[in-house]
Specification:
- The chain is built from twelve helices and eight strands.
- By secondary structure, it is α+β, with helices and mostly antiparallel strands.
- A hairpin with a 2-residue loop joins strand 5 and strand 6.
- The protein is globular and about 55 Å long.
């Protein structure tokens, strides 16, 4: 249900969605999602919104009163944890890809293992033909963010690997429902979303993504984690650029 309390509070403050977005330094689409999809901002942003609109957080988002239920639901979202990415069985990746019918969303720098080991190009082609929406975010191989990560990890080939993955996927770029963008943001987590399932590969300074933990999340009503990472994906998507070769 839309958040009519938030919509009304914005109007009562003589603001528009654009005006509130400007004050918060977020995109207007983010504000619109808070209203139309009743998404709850992160705690620091909620506090700023409440201050600007001169309302209590719990008035604008009454679900905050059910924090204990949210906490329990969020724990239920965690299906599995693997200490490193190679320990995620290939069959888990393939199963999640097979089951996805509406959304496949990927946020990585290179993600070369997808195209090299998991036949991801053909997965994208098949899902696009079946009508799924596919959004892929790859690291801009020319960006300072990617070069910095390459230095931190001691992996000088990272920029070239970003470009190589884009070259692999380029044949799918014009398929209906497929959108590929490149980003130059710091990569805090690699995100792999398949409908209501998500694999989140965390990152630590100086460590390869392959040597870092992977969380398997499943969307659960009232949970927080799945939406938290999806909002992060959307934030990167909003500032990324259409990919070019």
């Amino acid at each position: 249900m839309p958040n009519e309390r938030l919509r009304g509070a914005i109007a009562a403050a003589n603001l528009t969605n654009h005006g509130l977005a400007d004050k918060l330094h977020v995109s207007v689409k983010t504000v619109e999602r808070w209203i139309t999809q009743n998404r709850c901002p992160h705690p620091p942003t909620r506090l700023k919104v409440a201050g600007i609109l001169e309302q209590d957080e719990t008035y604008l988002w009454p679900e905050l009163l059910a924090d204990s239920r949210t906490s329990n639901a969020s724990r239920s979202e965690l299906v599995q944890l693997w200490p490193t990415r190679p320990e995620v069985p290939h069959e888990v990746w393939r199963s999640l890809m097979r089951q996805a019918t509406s959304h496949v969303e990927i946020l990585v720098y290179a993600g070369g293992f997808l195209v090299e080991s998991l036949d991801f190009v053909n997965v994208v082609r098949a899902k696009a033909e079946a009508g799924a929406e596919i959004r892929i975010l790859l690291g801009d191989h020319k960006s300072e963010a990617v070069r910095q990560r390459a230095r931190e990890e001691g992996l000088p080939s990272l920029p070239q690997r970003c470009l190589s993955t884009l070259e692999y996927l380029w044949e799918t770029a014009e398929l209906p429902g497929v959108a590929i963008r490149t980003h130059s943001t710091p990569l805090y987590n690699s995100i792999y979303r398949f409908d209501n399932s998500m694999l989140v590969n965390t990152h630590s300074y100086g460590a390869y993504a392959a040597k870092s933990p992977v969380h398997h999340l499943q969307r659960v009503p009232g949970g927080h984690l799945f939406g938290y990472y999806l909002e992060s994906f959307d934030a990167v998507w909003s500032i990324a650029r259409p990919a070019v070769l």
